[in-house]
Amino acid sequence: MRLYNTLTRTEETFTPGPDNTVRMYTCGLTVYARGHIGNFRTFVCVDVLRRTLRHLMHYRLHHVMNFTDVDDRTIIGAQKAGMDLRAYTDQYIAAFREDAKALGLEPVEENPRATDPENIAAMGAMIDALEQRGHTYRSDGSIYFKIASMPDYGKLAHLDHAGIKPGARVDSDNYAKDDARDFVLWKGTKPGEPTWQVAGDTPGRPGWHLECSAMALRLLGESPIDIHTGGIDLIFPHHENEIAQSECATGKPFSRFWFHVEHLIVDDEKMSKSLGNTFTIPDIITSGHRPSAVRYLLLSSHYRKQLNFTWESLQQAEEALRRLTDCLARVDAVSASGGHADIQKRVAEAQQAFSDAMQHDLNTAAALGAMFELVRAINSAIDAGQLGTEDVPVIRSAFAGFDLVLGILSLRHAEDEQPPVPVEEIERLIEERHAARRRRDFAAADRVRDDLAARGVLLEDSAAGTRWKRK
Ligand code: AMP
Ligand code: ZN
């Protein structure tokens, strides 16, 4: 399989490590807010990379995706909410798990939290290794990484060394390329901030970059790992600094491949919380759309191209998805006997084109194209009476194969099994409607019924009581 590697800026052939296993790390969500669909663009593309490696290439996966539950943003958020950091971040981890399920992300092998004691200990051990090898210095209670101590610092982001100011320091977790400076590994204790003791009992808390280096190497083992992934904004400073820390601590390359997903944008700007242009999965559901359509939309363009989010494009994704499910419903209804070499040949060609597209740097747009070409061929064959029951399992198994990688049809199926309104809420509203009738407020009772109908749930009254069903 060919994959673009940010480190070399070229497409390279990817092969797994020993025993056919791919050791992959994904920088997960910073849990200071609910993730938005921009964040999930990255996570859905990484999920499709994971699924391609597993289900198409038949490699084994050891995939780690962390939760960044201590950094500048989580600490400020918890302080503002007057909550303990762990309790504050718990809420957004729970929301992430809900949204990840709604978007059909395969569970990964490990989801560490930066503040887990074993991870904090690994961060301390990494600082010790860096100190021993002369890559650090201390100032004002904090510990910094000295970038002048690493001759190839900047190789991922292609930094111009002339612009780097030796000896100048930066304390914040995020900063721009022009500000490439000695970055903080361990931030000295400040009043009101959570504190741990590492590296000769220095009280403080980890810098963001250190967290990922330590978790990746603790959980994935020997360097180099096979693939490191994240959104394109993480190339600098986060991933550059992860490379610096990991390579200087171990003396070995950190990751063979670097996989970066381009941004989801809105009106030419990155979707991001600071710009106030974000939508979350609950926002999407409230607006009457389905997460499966979001997943489809997020896969409709190549992961290395920007993708512009509009409500029309979400509607188009919904329509495309329906063309697909309508076609498969037609296939299921075929009753004529026999098989047809023509359509089975088209199926085999589509499978080949799909596999080629995915193996060519995860070209999901071309893979979807191959799938829809087959949809057209199937519809024409059904119209012409050229599809029989012997063709049906061949077609079904091809789409099942596509879906192991794309994860769209199974997601739609799971959504269809779920009532559009949570069952507890339906039951509460039925009770409310009975109460309204008992007090002879028929207008209120009808309102409850009509509101539920608008949300896709029909109420049916009978002598035995009220039952509900999907519209
Ligand atoms: P954060 O929670 O800010 O650490 O971001 C989690 C992941 O989402 C990172 O891999 C980011 O690069 C990615 N990300 C953030 N905004 C976007 C966006 N608009 N489009 C695609 N990926 C994004
Ligand atoms: Zn990270």
Total helical segments:
15
Estimated helix fraction: 40-55%
What do we call the CATH topology of the largest domain?
Rossmann fold
Category from helices, strands and their pairing: alpha/beta
Q: What's the main sheet like?
A: 6 strands, mixed
Output the radius of gyration.
Answer: 26 Å
CATH C-level label of the largest domain:
Alpha Beta
> Ranges with pLDDT <50 over ≥5 residues?
none
SSE layout and pairing:
Layout: E1 2-5, E2 10-13, E3 21-26, H1 37-56, E4 60-65, H2 72-81, H3 85-102, H4 117-132, E5 136-139, E6 142-145, E7 169-170, E8 182-188, E9 196-198, E10 202-206, H5 208-220, E11 225-231, H6 235-250, E12 255-261, E13 264-266, E14 269-270, H7 281-286, H8 291-299, E15 307-308, H9 311-332, H10 341-359, H11 364-383, H12 392-406, H13 409-417, H14 423-438, H15 442-454, E16 457-462, E17 465-470
Parallel strand pairs: 3-4, 3-11, 7-8, 11-12, 13-15
Antiparallel strand pairs: 1-2, 5-6, 6-8, 8-10, 9-10, 13-14, 16-17
Helix pairs in contact: 1-8, 1-12, 4-5, 4-6, 5-6, 8-9, 9-11, 10-11, 10-12, 14-15
Bound molecules: adenosine monophosphate and zinc ion (ZN).
Residues 27, 212, 238 line the site of zinc ion.
